[in-house]
Design brief:
The chain is mostly helical. The protein is 67% helix and 0% strand. Helix 1 packs antiparallel against helix 2. The radius of gyration is 18 Å and the shape is elongated. The termini are far apart.
Amino acid sequence: MRFKPFPNFRLASRAAAHRAMARAALFSDSSLRIRYQRYQQHMQKARDLDAKAAFSVQPCAVQEEQS
């Protein structure tokens, strides 16, 4: 298994790529319905990747010792 020190960077870059594909879908040479479907699919994928990236960097709870 390969060690990945910053997995959220990769997820964030993939999310950015899907946002770019979503914008490109709006201007493609297709019908309005197809363009909107492609836009929605790419934006949903970007939202999922952003949520996954945010979940992977949640800080752990630190308990302090009481004396």
